What we know:
The structure holds 2 protein chains of 2 kinds.
Chain A: H1 2-14, H2 17-55, E1 59-64, H3 70-75, H4 78-87, E2 91-106, E3 109-118, H5 121-126, E4 130-133, H6 138-142, E5 147-150, H7 152-158, E6 168-173, E7 176-186, E8 200-204, H8 205-212, E9 220-225, H9 231-246, E10 252-255, H10 257-300, H11 302-310, H12 315-351, H13 360-387, H14 390-394
Parallel strand pairs in A: 3-8, 5-7
Antiparallel strand pairs in A: 1-9, 1-10, 2-3, 2-6, 2-9, 4-7, 5-8, 6-7
Chain B: H1 2-14, E1 23-34, E2 37-49, E3 54-58, H2 65-72, E4 80-85, E5 88-89, H3 95-105, E6 106-109, H4 121-131, H5 136-149, H6 165-177, E7 183-187, H7 195-210, E8 214-218, H8 222-227, E9 230-235, E10 238-240
Parallel strand pairs in B: 3-8, 3-9, 6-7, 7-8
Antiparallel strand pairs in B: 1-2, 1-4, 4-5, 9-10
Amino acid sequence: MFFENLKLGFKDFGSNKLRTALSVLGIVIGVTSVITITTLGGSATTSIQEEVEDAGLNVIVVFPGRDSDREVRRLFTQELAKEIKEAVDGVQNVLPINSGGYLVRFGKNSYESTVYGVDDGFQSVFCCETESGSFIDSRDNDRRKSVIVLGAEIGSELFPGEDALGKHVRVFRDGTARSFKVVGVMKSRTETMRIDFDTSVYIPYSTYTQRLHRVEHVDSYFIGTAEDADVLETADRVGDFFLDLTGNSEAYRVMSPATMAEMYTGITETLNLFLTGVAAISLIVGGIGIMNIMLVSVAERTKEIGIRKALGASPRAIRGQFLTEAVILTAMGGFIGMVLGSGLSFMGTSLLRWSFAPRPVAYLLSVVFSCSVGIFFGLYPAHRASKLKPVDALSFE
Amino acid sequence: MTTRTLVDEEIRTEEPVKVMPIIHAVNLKRDYLLGQTVVRALRGVSLDIERGELLSIMGPSGSGKSTLMHLIGCLDTPTSGSLVLDSTDVSRMNEEELAYTRNRKIGFVFQQFNLLYRMTVLDNVMTPLMYAGVDQKERKIRAADALDRVGLLNRLSHRPSELSGGQRQRVAIARALVTEPSIILADEPTGALDTDTGKTILDLFTRINDEGKTVIVVTHDPDISRFCKRNVTLRDGLLEE
C-alpha cells in the first residue's frame, strides 16, 4: 500500500509541476539555510581551532586592563616575572615584554614598525626561528647591547636583495634616533596574540627599557606553559595570581589563543544556534505552505476521494495516501535543500578559505525534521480527506 | 465466492429451500437534516432481494431511490431499521467496516463512470484490489482478466480520456467485477450513453447476471426497468411494488 501511495503521490505532483515546486520552496529554503549555516558555522569553528593550533596553544598573555592606574602599573615589574613563574603551577617561563611604534630606517628605506623589547625566552615561547643570524640572547640583555632582529617582511623591505646582517639601522621616535646593529632576520610566521611577527623588530629588553624608552613597568607578560599543563587552567591560575596582586579583576587581562578560541567558538556556536533557529522557523513556515497546498489538493480531489471510498478505501487508506503525499513533498524539498545547502556552503568555505566541514548531524536532522514537518502539517489535511462522507464526496462536482 | 453462488443457484432450482436473501431490509428509514428541516428520504422501506436477481429500482427524482442505493451500497447508514447484506448486518457499521464491506461485497457502476482520469485503464481496475490487499502481481492478472470479460483487453494502458463513453462504462464494469462481489449496484448506468451503446451495456449486465451475480439497477428509465426481471418503484420514500 505504501508504495502505491508513493506512486500516486508522484503521479499527482507530475500533473501539477509548478504548484508542487512552489509548495516545496519553503522547505527547500529552510533546509538549505540549516545546512549552509551549520556547515559554515562548523567550518568557522574548525578554522579558528586550526589557526589557534598553528599559532601555538601554549601562550598566555597578561597586560594591564581597563581599570589599571599608576598604582597597578607599578606592580608590573620585571621581578614579578620570576614570582609568577615560581607561584603559578604549569608556568614554564615568563617573558616581560615592552613594545612601541617606531620608524626603522636603513639608508632611504624606512618602515613603520613595532619594536619589542624581549629576552631570549621569546623565541622558544613563540616557536619562531631565524632565517639568518641569531636571536637576542641573554648576554645581549645583560650588556644592554644595541642589537636588533628584524621580522621577515621588514627585513626584505629595508634590505631588498641584500644581506642585512651586520648593517646598522636607525630607530626613530619623537625626533630622537638610535642606531642598532642587525644580528638576525626572522622566518615568516603566522600572526598571533596581536603580534604581527613579520612586521616587528626585536631588541634586548634591557636596551628597550633603559635606552630606547625609559620605563619602570612591564607592558605585558608572555607566559609559556609547560607541555603537560592545561593552558586554560593555567590561565585561570595566572588570573587568580593577578587578582591577589591587584585586588581588582578589571585591572589586568589574561588572554591566550586557547581562551580566545574558546571565546570565538562560543560566539560562533551561539550565532549558529540562533541562525539555525531562524532557519528552523522557515521550515515551519514551509510546512504551513505544505499544509495549505494539501488542503487545496484535498478539496480539489473530493470526487476522487469519493470514488476511492466507493471502491473500498478505508479512512485509514485515504489518510495514508494524503499523508504520504505530504511527506513526499517535504522529503523532496529536504533533499533539494540538502544538495543546495551543501553546494552553497562548499562555495562559501572555499571563498573564505575555510576547511569544508559538513555536519552529518545537520543532515540527519534535516531529513528527520522535514519528514516530521510533512507528517505534522499533512496530518490535518489527510484527516479531513479521510473523514469525508462517501456520499457527499461522490456527489461533489 | 462465484462457486458458492452457483451452489446456491443449484439448490434453489432443484428444490425450493428457503435461503437467506442477499439483501434483507426491514423498515429502513433515513432522515436528513437540511438546514432546520428534517427531510425524510426513506420512510420505512422493507425489501428482500434474492441471490442472482436482476432487479431495477425505479422512481422519480426525490423519491428516495438514490438514498436506498446509498444504503444498499454501504455508502451510508440508515437512521433506523435494519439492513442485512449477504448475511451481515451493515446498518450499524462504522466507516472502516463499511469500507471493507463495499470493497468485498459490492461493485459500483455509476452514470458518470467515475473513473480516475489520471490513471491508466489497468490501474483503474486494479484499484479496488489494492484496497483489498491483493499483491501487485495478482492484481494485474485479475484486472486484465476482468477487462477481458468486458472486451477491453486491448486498452490496458490507455487513459480513460482516450476511450469512448461505452468503453469507459465497460472499464467501470470491469472495475466493479474485479473483486468478485456478490452485488453489482448500477446507478443510471446508461444515463450518459446513446441508446445503442446503452443496449450493449445492458446486455453486459444480463451476462453478468447469468453468471450468477445479483445486479441492481437504479433508474428512472422505464425501458431499462422492462429489461430487468423484477422492478420495484419508490415514491415519496416508500415502496410500491
